[in-house]
UniProtKB/TrEMBL annotation:
Species: Virgibacillus tibetensis
SUPFAM superfamilies recorded: Thioredoxin-like
InterPro entries given in the database record: DUF1462 (IPR009190), Thioredoxin-like_sf (IPR036249), YuzD-like_sp (IPR038218)
Protein name (database record): YuzD family protein
A matching Pfam family: DUF1462
Length: 109
């Protein structure tokens, strides 16, 4: 069974979220997730994307979500697997792994 392509998007900023003092920065989380997922899964079907919420968004869906983050005062980083928000603030690997399993991403052999 071939895994479908999976998009992992991390929304964040260089400045650490005020409510997440002591947590790693968004860019660090982005890099950590890639390493952690790559150790457990065949990450060939996975595309990673980092969106800095303080930079002008190139895509409409990112711009709209950044507006939502501000309006709803969401904690970042925020992690999406495809169109499903799976983490807000400090991400939990188990939750992200469960979502990858749902999408048929294959474990490392």
């Amino acid at each position: 069974m071939e895994a479908k392509k999976v998009q992992i998007t991390i929304y964040g900023a260089e400045q650490i979220c005020a409510s997440c003092v002591g947590a790693p920065g968004s860019k660090d989380t982005y890099e950590w997730l890639q390493a952690a997922i790559g150790r457990k899964y065949d990450d060939e079907p996975i595309n990673y994307e980092y969106v800095d919420i303080n930079q002008p968004a190139k895509e409409e869906k990112h711009r709209l979500f950044i507006e939502r983050m501000v309006e709803e005062d969401l904690f970042y980083p925020i992690v999406f697997v495809n169109d499903e928000m799976v983490a807000e603030g400090i991400p939990r690997l188990k939750t992200i792994y469960n979502e990858l399993d749902k999408h048929g991403v294959v474990l490392q052999s």
